[in-house]
Every structure is written in structure tokens, then in C-alpha cells.
Write a structure and sequence with these properties.
- Chain A: GO terms for molecular function: signaling receptor binding.
- Chain A: InterPro entries: Wnt, Wnt_C, Wnt_CS.
- The complex is a heterodimer.
- Chain A is globular and about 60 Å long.
- Chain A has helices at about 1-25, 45-50, 55-65, 70-85, 110-135, 165-175, 175-180, 185-205, 230-245, 310-315, and strands spanning about 210-215, 220-230, 245-255, 255-260, 275, 300, 320-335, 340-355.
- Chain A is of the alpha+beta class.
- Helix content of chain A is about 35%, strand content about 20%.
- By secondary structure, chain B is mostly helical.
- Among the domains of chain B are: about 45-180, no CATH class; about 275-440, no CATH class.
- In chain B, strands 1-2 form a two-stranded antiparallel ribbon.
- In chain B, helix 2 packs across helix 6 (about 150-160) and helix 14 (about 315-330) runs antiparallel to helix 15 (about 335-360).
- The longest helix of chain B has about 40 residues, at about 1-45.
- Chain B starts with a helix and ends with a helix.
- Residues about 405-410 of chain B have low confidence and may be disordered.
- The chains are: A alpha+beta, B mainly alpha.
- The interface of A and B includes residues 140, 145, 157, 158 and 217 of A.
């Protein structure tokens, strides 16, 4: 009897832990990037089998299946852009070997890094869906009718401005849904929703203007102009700046509501476009497989700078780095050949490569 | 949901694109149209010619300022330089070549040294028109078509004629002097102005709101990756074409409104200025037809003042020199130069090939439509239509290829080359193949 009772208890506990972990990870939909190309991401039955989606997101998937291909595209954009923006930092958006939690448990700890990824994710969905609209790949959306009147620069909007409002609305529906499902009275969902909205604001505040020239033989006596989305790399760069200036906040009761206010009372409350976080980040120095942190051992670093984030002392968390020589083959003496290619010679050079000690 | 989404798209297109485009189009040109009309009406007041010339100079200056602000000094400088050369060479018989070289030097200096690209690019349309007017006047003086150097006020009136100073087109000095005579106001004159204005706005709408969304919104063709590239190239091309037609019809409007652009036969006056023939470009018989239909006054100018004078060096050389002159008038843009040079080769090879085929087959397959009394034996057989149809399809493909990379801003050389590489240099290879074929059947 003791044996039977012990097994039953352990099973129940494990089930509860798994359920809680699943529910808690709001960026699990990023695991769509791990699906093979041939795997469908729309249709009632395939939606139910996508393990990274929350129940509400499964509902969106079933109801608006035509948009899900854009969401898959967005997940790929997030991982690629994150790894680009953090390529010189200790945590460089490394992905876990498998599973639905693409970046590991660091996303679940209310850290500054989690703030960045949430903002980037919501922006990516808005961008990918809006781009799908502009290319005519998605039905039910067309031009953005809200962009009209005279711009501050003095020309009138015309042409089909990218229908960002559609993409933003979908991003709010899809990406914010797991947070709202958890309720709005605890800190983590509030933080995530704030950062999601900051991501969408990063697009809105960086729209670019394109113009068409009309004039004798293509000269520019007269112009018609419209707005287009910035390239996603620019959105990533903007959010990286927000990341560098993120505000640490804590949950505070204000009357009958709860709000996120700066932990340090001297700091002004964050604006809607600022990133916020609840907990300090780990140092990301040592290997920690349980939390999905690979550490910096073996990373290449910048041996000539002590101040850059990829400087060896910073990246390697101290003096634990070494220099080695390597022979690299580089292109040199490039010449333009008519018509029309560039030909280069292959040159061998010896370079000094610094890496963090194991 | 498909039909609903289409309806939703067109609804939003109307409010989000059609309306703002018309608004913007008219907003930027209504003052120009008004000044043209005022000028026309004032010329009907029986003023002495001196004041007529002066009034159009004032109107011209004001519109130049409207469009270019202080950068208009470059246009003014060019015109003053031209008059100085004409005056200093008033006893010479080589004013044409000399003035051409002077203008060329001025434009090259301007392009390379004097100011930033954006500003120069904005004004080069007007510079081009001024240059063409001055050159044509110089050559006409050499030939005696114009009997003496005009007075300063006449010259400036011609150069700054408010009907053509911004959007062109080029008109000859004698046409301008005819316009100063000031024909009666009439219903046909007014209708011509209104119809051209409506056409220009229509073309602007097509350029801005239809062409960019042709596939798949207007024509539900999606295509695979390869076809998608060509469909997109066609959209870009069409958008550029209709931007050109917009400016051409606008030029017709301003010219007619200001009182020029008519032909007179005995007592029969026709307000019939035509700058571009869109149908001949969009449904071309040949690239030759496209080239002449794109801008008739410029085509006439190039033929009269460049091609015929260069013909003594051979027809191929004359064609290349004509396209070179055209490229220089358009400014030192690698992109435009590359397009025009390519166009020159395409046009020449098609012309000689069709001429040869016409001789061998004794059929109406020339680049230009045969007159009804031509001597060819085969005129309306099915295979004659097939040959002409094939060349028409080729012309469409060339137009798509050449127009595919016209962008709001001028691209650098690598952009043109990149775009043509994307399309596998198709037109270049096809032209080469046709040339080989032509050599084989000589």
C-alpha cells in the first residue's frame, strides 16, 4: 500500500507542474519557427496539435487560419532579429535544443531580456501580418484608410499606406491573449502587455515616407507620397535602445487598481513606449541548462576593447580568456569585370582570435 | 469572403488613394493653370506685343518660383547664358552647334559640381525644356527659318512662356510667335483644355492607385516566383508610363490654356496639341512606334535637330547620337542613360530586321504601319498578322523590362544592373539573338 500511494502522489504532482509551466510561458508560440515547412498551421485539427499555442491562440488559429502563415513568419523574424541585436552580448538569444520554450526559462522570470523579446514578438506579428496585407496574400484587409490629411512635412497622403492598423489589431488579439487569460492583477501579465504594446509603438513611431515623382521624363516637379513600415531591422534596433534604457518596476496598488511603477521612486513612470521589467537578470556567465543559459565559455570576444559589450573582460566575466592564432582566407584585390560581376583573389592572412576560456 | 474582401479593398482604395491623389494632383497645379488662363485672357486685351511678352515672362517666373523656389536661379542662369551666346554670335552661321556645346557644358557642370542631386533632379525637366528651346532657336536662325535674333523680351517670353515652362513641351519659336497673335476664345479651345486636364488626372490615378495593385487586386493572377517578378516589373513599368502620360496631358492643358498648341489651315483653327499617345505605347506595334509616341514634341525635336544633322555619318551612328543627346538632356543619370542606350540598340535592330523581312517576304511587316497604297504583295494574310503580333509581344516585354526599375528616386548604377540581373538580362539577350538572326538573313 505505501508503494501504490507514493506513485499516485508523484504522478499528480508532475502533472500539475507541467500544466503550470505550459500555461505560464506566453512566448511559446515562437516554437512555430521550429515546425517543418510542410507542417500546416491552419485548419481546426492542425491548430489543436500546435503545442506552443495557448487555448485562446488555438481559437484564433481556427477562426483566422489564413493569417497563421504570417505568424509563423513572424516567429522566424523574432529569433533572427533577436540574435542579431544581441550578437555581442553574453546572452545572445541562444535557443534551447528542443521544446516549446524557444529561449528557455529566462523568458519566464520577468527579466529585461524577456521584456525585449515580448516587445519584439508583438512587433514581428504586426509587421508580418501587415506585409501579408500589402502583398495581397491575406483577404479582409487592404489599404489603411486612417492615413490621410496633410503631413507635418506639408504634403498630402495618397496611395495605399501600409495597413498597419490591421496588423496591430491582430497582434493585440493574438500575442496579448495568453496574458489576459492570466488576469490583469498580477505583475507578470501587466509587464508583458506593456512591453507588447511598446513593440507595436516602435513600428508606429518609425513609419517612413515614400514618394513617387511626376515630371518631364521622370523628373520631380510634383510628388505623391505615402507611408510605409520601417524595415524590421530598424524596429529591432529601436527596441534594443529601449532595452538599454528599460525601467525596473514593481506591482503597486493604486486605489482599487494595480499598476507597474518604478521600483526607484526617483525614476519617472515609464512611458507607453518604454520597456519595463520586474526582476534583475542573471549574469549569464555560467552554463545553466535548467534555465536554458549556455554561458559564455567558448565565445569569441573583442580583444582590443575593454569597454564594448563584447570586450573580453566583460563578455567572459573576468580575465578568463585566451588568444589564439588562426589563418583565414579573405577576398582581396576585388575588381569589377565588364559586364557585370566582381572578381576577387583569395588571400591568406593570420589573425589573432580571442575566445573565452572553457 | 473573397468577393467581400475585394469590395472592401476597392472601397478603401477610393477613400485612401483615389481621393487624396486627385486632391494632391490639383492642389499642386491649380495655380499654374490659373496663371496660364490669366495670361491667355490678358493677351486678348489688345496689348502691344512688348507687354504680351513681358506678361508671360512674369507669369513664367512666378510659376518657376512656385515649383522650385530659389533654385529657379539655375534655370534663369541657363536662359541668360543662352541669350548671351546668341547675341555674341549674331553674325555667325554656326550658332546651333556652338550653343549646343555651351549648354552641354553648363548641364555637365551643374550635374557634377554645382549642387546636390535631389535639387538638380527636381529641376531637370525645366532645364531640359529651356535647353531644347534655345538649341532649336539657334539652328532655326542658322537656317533662316527665324530671320533675325529676337529681342531680349521676345527671347525671354519664348523661354519663360508660362504654358510650357514647367511641364513642357518644347514648342518652336515660330509657334510661340503665332501664339502671341492670340486667337479668339472658343468652345473648342476651352473643351480641349478641360479634356486634357481630366485625362491628366485620370493618368495620375492609374499611376498611383491602379498600377501598383494590378496583380492580384484588379487582375486576379498570382503566378509563381518567376512570373511574380515579371508581373511586378510590369506594374512598375505601367506606373511609370502613366506618370509620364499624366505630365504629358498636363503639358497639353497648360499649353492650350495659355493659347499655344494649335494648327491652322486657311481659316480652320484646331486646338490639337498632342504630346503622348498612350494607346500606341501600351499596345505597341513596334519599339519605334513606342519611342515616337512617348513624347511627340521631343521626338520631333530630336529628329529635326539631332538625327537629321547626324545622318551624314550613317544611320546607325545617327540613331546612337540621337539617344545620346536624349540621355544628356535627361541629365547624367546612369539609369536613364542605360535605358536609353539599350532602347537605341533595341530600336535599331528591330527596324533593320523588319525592313529585311519586309523585303524578303514582300509583306507589310515594317516597324511603321504601311500606308494603304504600299507595293507589298502580302498585307492581310494570317501569317503577316502573326509576325506583327510577335513583334508587338516583344515590344511589350522590352517595355516591361526597361520600365521595371523606375523608382521615386534615381537609383545608383548597381540598382539598375541588379534589377536587370533579376530579370536575367532578357531584353539584352533577345536583342542580341535578333541581331544574329538579322545577320543570318542578310
Amino acid at each position: 500500500m505505501p508503494t501504490v500511494s507514493s506513485v499516485t502522489l508523484t504522478g499528480r504532482l508532475l502533472l500539475l507542474l507541467l500544466w503550470a509551466a505550459h500555461l505560464a510561458m506566453a512566448t511559446n508560440w515562437l516554437s512555430l519557427a521550429r515546425l517543418s515547412r510542410s507542417r500546416p498551421v491552419s485548419g481546426a485539427e492542425p491548430c489543436g496539435r500546435l503545442r506552443g499555442l495557448s487555448p485562446g491562440q488555438v481559437g484564433v488559429c481556427r477562426a483566422r487560419g489564413e493569417v497563421m502563415e504570417s505568424v509563423r513568419k513572424a516567429s522566424e523574424m523574432v529569433i533572427e532579429e533577436c540574435q542579431h541585436q544581441f550578437r555581442n552580448r553574453r546572452w545572445n538569444c541562444s535557443t534551447t535544443p528542443r521544446g516549446i520554450n524557444v529561449f528557455g526559462r529566462v523568458m519566464n522570470q520577468g527579466t529585461r531580456e524577456a521584456a525585449f523579446v515580448h516587445a519584439l514578438s508583438s512587433a514581428a506579428v504586426a509587421v508580418a501580418v501587415t506585409r501579408g496585407c500589402s502583398r495581397g496574400e491575406l483577404e479582409r484587409c487592404g489599404c489603411d484608410r486612417k492615413v490621410r490629411g496633410v503631413s507635418p512635412e506639408g504634403f498630402q497622403w495618397s496611395g495605399c499606406s501600409d495597413n498597419l492598423s490591421y496588423g496591430v489589431a491582430f497582434s493585440q488579439t493574438f500575442v496579448d491573449e495568453p496574458e489576459r487569460a492570466k488576469g490583469m492583477s498580477s505583475g507578470r501579465p501587466l509587464m508583458n502587455i506593456h512591453n507588447n504594446e511598446a513593440g507595436r509603438k516602435a513600428i508606429l513611431h518609425n513609419m517612413q515616407v515614400e514618394c513617387k515623382c511626376h515630371g518631364v521624363s521622370g523628373s520631380c516637379e510634383l510628388r505623391t507620397c505615402w507611408k510605409v513600415m520601417p524595415p524590421f531591422r530598424r524596429v529591432g534596433a529601436v527596441l534594443k535602445e529601449r532595452f538599454d534604457g528599460a525601467t525596473e518596476v514593481r506591482l503597486t496598488r493604486v486605489g482599487s487598481r494595480t499598476a507597474l511603477l518604478p521600483r526607484d521612486p526617483q525614476v519617472k513612470p515609464p512611458a507607453t513606449r518604454d520597456l519595463v521589467y520586474l526582476a534583475p537578470s542573471p549574469d549569464f556567465c555560467r552554463l545553466d541548462p535548467d534555465n536554458g543559459i549556455p554561458g559564455t565559455a567558448g565565445r569569441r570576444c573583442n580583444g582590443t576593447s575593454r569597454l564594448a559589450p563584447d570586450g573580453c573582460e566583460l563578455l567572459c566575466c573576468g580575465p578568463g580568456f585566451r588568444a589564439g592564432r588562426a589563418e583565414v582566407v579573405q577576398r582581396c584585390s576585388c575588381k569589377f569585370s565588364w559586364c557585370c560581376s566582381v572578381r576577387c583573389q583569395q588571400c591568406k592572412n593570420t589573425v589573432l582570435i580571442h575566445t573565452c576560456r572553457e | 469572403m473573397g468577393s467581400l474582401s475585394r469590395q472592401a479593398f476597392f472601397q478603401e482604395l477610393g477613400s485612401g488613394c483615389l481621393l487624396p491623389t486627385v486632391q494632391q494632383g490639383l492642389e499642386q497645379v491649380w495655380q499654374l493653370l490659373l496663371i496660364c488662363l490669366v495670361c491667355r485672357l490678358s493677351w486678348r486685351l489688345g496689348l502691344p506685343n512688348f507687354l504680351k511678352h513681358l506678361s508671360t515672362v512674369v507669369g513664367g517666373f512666378y510659376t518657376l518660383y512656385l515649383f522650385f523656389e530659389l533654385h529657379m536661379v539655375w534655370v534663369v542662369l541657363l536662359s541668360l547664358l543662352c541669350y548671351l551666346i546668341l547675341f555674341l554670335c549674331r553674325h555667325s552661321s554656326s550658332r546651333g552647334p556652338f550653343l549646343s556645346i555651351t549648354i552641354l557644358i553648363y548641364l555637365l557642370l551643374g550635374e557634377l559640381h554645382m549642387m546636390d542631386t535631389t535639387t538638380w533632379h527636381k529641376m531637370r525637366g525645366s532645364q531640359m525644356v529651356v535647353a531644347m528651346k534655345a538649341v532649336s532657336l539657334a539652328f532655326d536662325l542658322d537656317k533662316g527659318i527665324v530671320d533675325k535674333v529676337p529681342s531680349p523680351v521676345e527671347f525671354m517670353g519664348y523661354i519663360y512662356f508660362v504654358g510650357t515652362v514647367i511641364f513642357g513641351p518644347w514648342i518652336s519659336f515660330n509657334s510661340y510667335m503665332d501664339a502671341v497673335e492670340s486667337r479668339k476664345l472658343s468652345v473648342s479651345w476651352f473643351m480641349k483644355s478641360v479634356i486634357s486636364c481630366v485625362k491628366s488626372q485620370l493618368c495620375l490615378l492609374i499611376s498611383n492607385c491602379v498600377a501598383p495593385y494590378l496583380f492580384p487586386y484588379f487582375i486576379p493572377v498570382f503566378g509563381n516566383k518567376l512570373l511574380r517578378k515579371w508581373l511586378q516589373a510590369y506594374e512598375n513599368s505601367l506606373s511609370f508610363h502613366f506618370s509620364n502620360y499624366f505630365v504629358s496631358f498636363l503639358g497639353e492643358t497648360t499649353t492650350t490654356l495659355a493659347g499655344a498648341g494649335f494648327t491652322e489651315e486657311k481659316d480652320n483653327l484646331k486646338w490639337d496639341m498632342t504630346i503622348a499617345k498612350p494607346l500606341y505605347v501600351e499596345f505597341p506595334r513596334s519599339m519605334v512606334e513606342v519611342v515616337t509616341s512617348w513624347n511627340l514634341p521631343m521626338s520631333r525635336w530630336l529628329n529635326t535637330y539631332v538625327f537629321r544633322k547626324a545622318l551624314r555619318y550613317g544611320s546607325f551612328t545617327a540613331i546612337i547620337m540621337t539617344y545620346t543627346a536624349s540621355a544628356l538632356l535627361h541629365g547624367l543619370s546612369f539609369h536613364i542613360g542605360a535605358v536609353l542606350l539599350t532602347l537605341g540598340f533595341i530600336t535599331y535592330i528591330e527596324h533593320v530586321l523588319r525592313k529585311r523581312l519586309s523585303a524578303i517576304l514582300n509583306a507589310c511587316v515594317l516597324s511603321k504601319r504601311c500606308p494603304s497604297d504600299c507595293k507589298h504583295r502580302h498585307k492581310k494574310e494570317l501569317w503577316v498578322y502573326l509576325i506583327n503580333g510577335t513583334f508587338s509581344m516583344l515590344a511589350l516585354l522590352h517595355l516591361t523590362y526597361l520600365g521595371s526599375d523606375f523608382r521615386p528616386q534615381d537609383g545608383v548604377a548597381s540598382h539598375t544592373i541588379q534589377k536587370w540581373t533579376q530579370l536575367s538580362w532578357t531584353s539584352h539577350w533577345l536583342t542580341f539573338a535578333l541581331w544574329v538572326f538579322y545577320r543570318l538573313i542578310l
